[in-house]
Amino acid sequence: MQHTNRRAFLTLSAAVALQSSLAARLTAAERSSFRLAITTDEIDDDITVAAGFLKRFGIKHCEIRGYWGKYNTSQPIERAHEARQILDDAGIKLAILDTGFFKVGVPDLTTVDGKKALDKQWALLDKAFERADIMGTKLIRTFAFTYRRGETPSRLHYPWIYEQVQESAARAKKAGFRLALENVGGSYVATAAHSADLLKAVKHPALGLTWDPNNSAQSGDKEPYPAGYKMLDANRIHHVHVRDYKYNADGSADWCGVGDGDFDHVGQLQAFLKDGYQGVVSLETHFKIDDSKAKASEYSIKALLEIIERV
User: Fold this and answer.
1) How far is Cα 166 from Cα 106, in angstroms, rounded to an integer?
2) What is the pLDDT of residue 16?
3) Do the Cβ atoms of 300 and 256 come closer than 8 Å?
4) d(Cα 272, Cα 213) in Å, to the nearest integer?
5) Any alpha helices (H) in 61-204, and if so which ranges?
6) Residue 212 in contact with residue 186, Cβ under 8 Å?
7) Nearest CA among 158, 281, 152, 154 for reference residue 220
8) pLDDT tens per residue across span 157-193
C-alpha cells in the first residue's frame, strides 16, 4: 500500500513539475522582448494542429508557407478564409505570408516561354496580395531569382534582377503591402553580402529583408553574425528566421536544434534589441526528431525561449 501511494505521489509530482515547467515557458514567451513565431508547416501541415501547438507555448504569431497539402498561394480563396478563422479563434496573428515569388531561374526574355515565365511570377504576386489581405498581414516573403546546382551565377544578371525587385516593391506599395526578401541558398541573394548589395541597389521603402543568418552560413558565409549582420541596414530588416546549424569540415552546414550548433543566438538577439528591431523572430525549424517536425519544433522553441531569457 505504501509502495502504491509512493508511486502515485511520484507520478503526481512529475505531472506538477511538467505543468510548472510549461507554465514558466508560457510566461517566458509572453514576456519576451521579441514577438515570436513559428512557420506552421514546420509543426504540421494542418493549420488546426499547428495553431494548437502555438497556443500551448504562448506564441501569438505565425508564419505560413503551406497548409492542407498545398502552398498557400495555390489554395483557393475559401481555404484562406478558413485558415484565417482558425488563427483568429486561437488568438494567433499571421506575421508574414511566405511565397515562392522570384524563387525561379532568370527567364530568357528573348523567348516566348521566358516571357510567360515572368508573367506567371507577376500573377503569383497578385495572388499573394489577395491571400495576405484575407489572412491578416501586410508583409510578404519573396526571393531574388535562383540558379541551378553546380552553376556559377553571372554578375551580369544583377542589374536586371534589381530592376525586377524594384518593380515588385512598387507594385507592393501600390497594393498596400511590404516585401521581405529572403536570402537563401542557390539564389542571387544568398549571403549577408548579397543582401547588403541588394539593399544598396534597391532603395524602395516597400522592400526590406527576411534576414536568415542560417541560410547565409549554408551559402558559405563563415560569420553571418556579427560580421555579416554588420553589413546590413538593420532598419530594413522586416522579418527574421532563426534555427541553428553545424559547420562541417568542408565548410558546408547542416541544420540542427537551436542551441546545438554554431550560431550565436544570444549575440544576434542582443544586436536586434540594440538596433531597435520591431519585427517578428520566426523559428523555421528545418530538421526532425524521430522523423517528426513537431518534436523538433518543440525542442527548438524551448531552447529559443531559454536563450531569450539570457539576452
Assistant:
1) 16
2) 46
3) no
4) 13
5) 77-90, 112-135, 158-175, 192-201
6) no
7) 152
8) 999 999 999 999 999 999 999 999 999 999 999 999 9
Contacts of 225 (CB under 8 A, 6+ apart): 213, 263, 264, 267, 268, 271
Residues 272 and 240 sit within 8 Å (Cβ to Cβ):
yes
Given the C-alpha cell 528566421, which residue does it identify?
A: 241
Q: How many Å apart are CA 99 and CA 210, to the nearest integer?
A: 12
Facing residues of 36 across strands? 281
For 64, the 3-state DSSP assignment is strand
Cβ burial of 36 (10 Å; 0-12, 13-18, 19+) is: buried
- Of 205, 200, 146, the C-alpha closest to 179 is 205
Name the helix (H) or strand (E) containing 216: helix 213-218
Burial of 182 (0-12, 13-18, 19+ CB in 10 A): buried
Backbone angles phi, psi at 212, to 5 degrees: -120, 90
| pLDDT tens digits for range 119-148 | 999 999 999 999 999 999 999 999 999 998
Q: Which of 235, 248, 245, 244 is nearest to 279 (CA)?
A: 235
Side-chain-side CA neighbours of residue 214 (13 Å): 21
Picking from 219, 294, 214, the residue whose alpha carbon sits closest to that of residue 260 is 214
Return d(Cα 234, Cα 236) in angstroms, integer. 5
